[in-house]
Amino acid sequence: MDKVFKALADETRRRLLDRLHEHNGQTLGELCERIDMARQSVTQHLAVLEAANLVATVRRGREKLHYLNPVPLHEIQERWIDKFERPRLSALGAVKRRAEEAMTDKPAFVYVTYIHSTPEKVWDALTDADLTAAYWGHRNVSDWQPGSRWEHVRTDGSGIADVVGTVVESERPSRLVTTWAAPEEEGRQDRHSRVTFDIRPHADIVRLTVTHEDLNDEGELSDVSGGWPAVLSNLKSLLETGSTLPQAPWEVPAS
To answer: Which listed site, 56, 68, 92, 122, has its alpha carbon 20 to 30 Å from 157?
Structure first.
């Protein structure tokens, strides 16, 4: 938390976060455009934000994209704001979100978690049908080759897929990119979202960054903002302890 407050104390770093809030997933060059400062200085500010886990970076080809990570800000809100002014601030926040929705592109969600595991085991947890059934409640079924179809199939024996899509990139054990769509909208490319899993090792742990972008509206953003932390917490528990959480985390009431 000290790193977060230190990062937020600087006006330039707050402006960079504002830029990412306006448009997530920007390169260093794009972030430098409206800041009268040398690239090296902006890079140093971004390093402070990344160290505080306020910014997550994702490689896409030769580009390095920067994303706002809302988790530390949410923790500050819960600890210092919500318990004092929840009703009034919730109403103001709803007004602000509606105003911003008309001004921004399709929303995106980025989540970063750290797991005591190996990249290979994390990859298998994301792609093995039996493992996904254990911690997700759905089987992720595909051969995971670029261009192949994948399905998010219920484990109740019905064979029903709640999500379908295409494997865009598959680089075991470091990067997996898939499109996501409701089965009835599989033929509508404009309704597809995109999920990227970036798996990076560091000594005995793995940093898993999940980027869910091209969401259709704030309703979908709200759904994935609650869904991804629950699913990834269950994955983390399975890999680190051998068991999933004792209760399904997505069934925990929001308040």
So the answer is: 122
Distance CA(207)–CA(68), nearest Å, equals 16
**Which regions of the chain are under pLDDT 70?**
77-105, 255
Instruction: Give CA angle at 164 (160, 168), nearest 5°.
Output: 155
Tell me how far apart the alpha carbons of residues 196 and 180 are, in angstroms, rounded to a whole number.
Answer: 11
Omega within 30 of 0 (cis) for the link into 173: yes
* Average per-residue pLDDT for the chain: 88
Tell me if 163 sits within 8 A of 152, measured CB to CB: yes
H/E stretch holding 133: helix 129-136
The phi and psi torsions of 192 (rounded to 5 degrees) equal -80, 140
pTM for the model stands at 0.63
Q: What local confidence, expressed as pLDDT, does residue 83 receive? A: 59
Rounded CA-CA distance 148/142 in Å is 7
In 3D, which of 61, 57, 66, 68 has the Cα closest to residue 200?
57
User: Are 134 and 244 contacting, i.e. CB atoms less than 8 angstroms apart?
Assistant: yes
Please state the φ and ψ torsions of residue 237, each to the nearest 5 degrees.
Answer: -60, -45
- Give the per-residue pLDDT at 103: 46
The structure tokens listed for 143 are: 């051969």
Q: What confidence score (pLDDT) does residue 236 get?
A: 96
